[in-house]
Amino acid sequence: MQQLRALLTVIRWDVVVEIKRRESTLNMSLFALLVLFIASYAMSDSRELLQAFGPIFYWVAIFFAGTVGLARAFLVEREGGAIHAMLVAPMDVSLYYIGKVIATWIYVMIMAGLVLLAYIVLFDFDDWSKLGRILATTACFVLVYVIVGVLLAAMTTSLRGGEVILRILLFPLMIPAVVVVYSANDGLFKTSALALESPAPFKAITVLLAMAAVYVSVCVVLFPKVVEE
Known about the structure:
Mean pLDDT: 82
Shape: globular
Helix content: over 70%
Number of helices: 12
């Protein structure tokens, strides 16, 4: 119970800090919305192009905008020296990682929700029956993204040019997850009876959850070593 309370404290503290500062969520959202707006404007003359390439830009917006938030995941801890207090706190350091992942997932999902809303408006999406599966797939993709990204953020925060290094390390590791969500695009976004019955989104969710389980198992082991270094 003590460890559980410590975990909840980490999550609450991180979320409260983000609510007060609003820098990460705001910057991520503005970047993602700008990507979608430019893409939709460039393809506004053709509904076929919007439907064909819109889903790709949806994932691109989340993928690239999320790095803005990840790059700042440990900024407060590094600036205030709180990361040293974390090492001597009476809690498992791995729990701190889990709490950071959950808190980061929450505000990246806030950004993703705004991106989905913008996608609906800008790309003429009106198939509301698929909204639930899009949100579920997005949540699983963001989970994998954050699990890997938080560990890499801990590694690169104190480095010069850490944001660039974070992206260089993160993008190759996320290729399998990107391939999974891209393979499910037809079942998620296309408006047809065949697309509605497609099992691809459910397979994508299953694969993403399996990837999340593998990644979090590895990252929980590596995180204490990364923080100590």
